[in-house]
């Protein structure tokens, strides 16, 4: 799924993980982020 930068989910991800040193990506799951429940996901950082 690709979401716009203005999406509340993306904003919350940036708030929670924006200063993380690891740029390889991270696994998420079983949690509520923004207005969406994430069952299982792998988030890639593109800079």
Helix content: 10-25%
Whole-angstrom Rg: 10 Å
pLDDT < 50 stretches: none
Please state how the strands of the largest beta sheet are arranged side by side: 1-4
Oligomer: single chain
Mean pLDDT: 83
Main attributes?
47 residues, alpha+beta, two-stranded antiparallel ribbon, two-stranded antiparallel sheet, 1 helix, 26% strand, globular
Explain what the structure shows:
The protein is α+β, with helices and mostly antiparallel strands. The chain is built from 1 helix and 4 strands; from the N terminus they run αββββ. It has one helix at residues 8-17; strands at 26-28, 31-33, 36-38, 41-43. The protein has a two-stranded antiparallel sheet with strand order 1-4. Strands 2-3 form a two-stranded antiparallel sheet. The longest helix is centred in the N-terminal third of the chain and has 10 residues, at 8-17. It is globular, with a radius of gyration of 10 Å.
Question: In a few lines, what is going on in this structure?
Answer:
With 47 residues, this protein is of the alpha+beta class. The protein is built from one helix and four strands.
What's the structural blueprint in terms of helices and strands?
Elements: H1 8-17, E1 26-28, E2 31-33, E3 36-38, E4 41-43
Antiparallel strand pairs: 1-4, 2-3
């Amino acid at each position: 799924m690709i979401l716009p930068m203005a999406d509340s989910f993306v904003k919350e991800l940036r708030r929670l993980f924006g200063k993380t040193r690891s740029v390889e990506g991270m696994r998420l799951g079983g949690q509520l982020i923004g207005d969406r429940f994430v069952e299982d996901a792998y988030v890639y950082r593109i800079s």
